[in-house]
Design a protein that fits this description.
The protein is of the alpha+beta class. It folds into two domains: 1-49, no CATH class; 52-241, no CATH class. The chain has eight helices and seven strands, in the order αββββαααβββαααα.
Length: 242
């Protein structure tokens, strides 16, 4: 709601700029208000919404929010086969990203990973599993330049972190899982790859579409002969997942 509108939770019915002067200081446009939760729009713009262009959903664990934005309900998402629909039709060399990048089910698992979060990650009010910063094949942190192109040069003016929940999801999560020595050692590895929301989303897809081996390059491959046949797996795995 705009700063000049009356605060619906203020007993005196004052405008938001008066009822919450600290949050509305300066030229703050307003706040997103829901059940006495106030999310201040710190950017000087008229739109006080939480969704932004190209963003499928927003999760704020401290406010107990999962908000699905307009892109989640556009044609390209509706036309993307989910793992349920595609399980029996996937072909050799199909890319996992074909079923993930604009899949609403993948988006939902991703956001639920944020929402459910992880133990010891900020307390009960901020237990968020984040979107880790993407890394290159050698483990260097990846940034996005103002023109949209990617770089590993953090000194370029205006660059921002490039995160794992973007185009080529599998590539970035796969890069994040690799360990490196030297100056890039702390940028990636198992501790990072198991603490980013997109890993859980992709793992869910691969677990369901388990007729194929998706490892290494994110493309469907036949399992090697040494793999345990379905009929020998415990708990009748094929029936349980199929």
């Amino acid at each position: 709601m705009p700063r000049y509108d009356n605060d619906p939770h203020d007993p005196a019915g004052r405008p938001l700029r008066e009822s919450r002067p600290k949050e509305m200081a300066g030229q703050t446009a307003g706040a997103w208000v829901y059940k006495k939760r106030y999310l201040v729009n710190a950017v000087k713009q008229e739109n006080t919404g939480l969704c932004r262009p190209g963003v499928f959903a927003v999760t704020l664990t401290r406010n107990d929010f999962i908000i699905f934005c307009t892109p989640s309900f556009e044609d390209k998402v509706a036309q993307t086969k989910s793992a349920v629909d595609a399980k029996d039709g996937a072909q050799k060399d199909d890319a996992l990203d074909t079923y993930s990048a604009t899949s609403l089910s993948r988006i939902m698992v991703h956001e639920l990973a944020h929402w459910f979060g992880g133990d010891k990650s900020g307390g009960s009010e901020n237990r968020n599993v984040p979107d880790q910063q993407a890394v290159g094949k050698e483990g260097a942190l990846v940034y996005q330049k103002p023109d949209g192109k990617r770089t590993t040069d953090a000194s370029i003016p205006g660059v921002k972190k490039y995160v794992t929940c973007t185009i080529d999801n599998f590539l970035w999560v796969s890069n994040l899982a690799r360990s490196h020595e030297g100056p890039n050692a702390g940028n990636c590895g198992p501790s990072k790859a198991t603490f980013t929301a997109e890993s859980y989303a992709l793992f869910a897809l691969m677990s369901y579409m388990d007729d194929w081996d998706w490892a290494n390059d994110g493309k469907a491959k036949a399992f090697v002969d040494e793999m345990i046949p379905y009929e020998r797996l415990p708990n009748n795995k094929k029936v349980r997942l199929g």
